[in-house]
Amino acid sequence: MTEPDVMIKLSDKIVFIEVKYLSSNEIKTGEEFAKYLIPDVEKEKLVESGHYELFRNWAFASKLSYGNDFILINLAPKKLFSSKSQSKLIQFENSLKSTKGKFVKLTWEEILEKVNNKEYDMWFKNYLNKKLDAIR
């Protein structure tokens, strides 16, 4: 089974969030994918991408949504989406063919930018900025 870091049930969709702070997305190859295969994925591209952890969450969200809309958000430092693994992540995205599911990459930096542009207490902004410094 899988364990998303955050799961939110909205009235019209389910949202799964896979959170990465200091680690990267789990990569595997081979047989592991078979037990989670669902319709609406290109199996060969998916397995080649190696994004086993993200796919487990995708498959779980797909099943748990019972045919309704769902979103899988990969929340991570910007460098995770622009590193050497970027091509494999794009391959993973391209393997997903669901009309009900959406995959979203969201960076900690994007969240921090939104927080810094709002009226939050300075201690909170400072705390988040220090946390982000650890992953830069």
Tell me the distance between the termini.
32 Å
Would you report the number of β strands? Answer: 4
Shape: globular
Mean pLDDT: 89
Structural class: alpha/beta
The largest sheet has its strands arranged as: 1-2-3-4
Quaternary class: single chain
Please report the number of helical segments.
6
What number of structural domains do the residues give?
Answer: 1
Radius of gyration: 16 Å
Molecular structure report:
Pfam families: REase-ARP. InterPro entries: REase-ARP-assoc. The chain contains six helices and four strands; from the N terminus they run ββααβααβαα. With 136 residues, the protein is of the alpha/beta class. It has one domain. Strands 1-2-3-4 form a four-stranded mixed β-sheet. β1 (6-9) and β2 (13-19) form a beta hairpin. α1 packs antiparallel against α4 and α5 packs antiparallel against α6 (122-133).
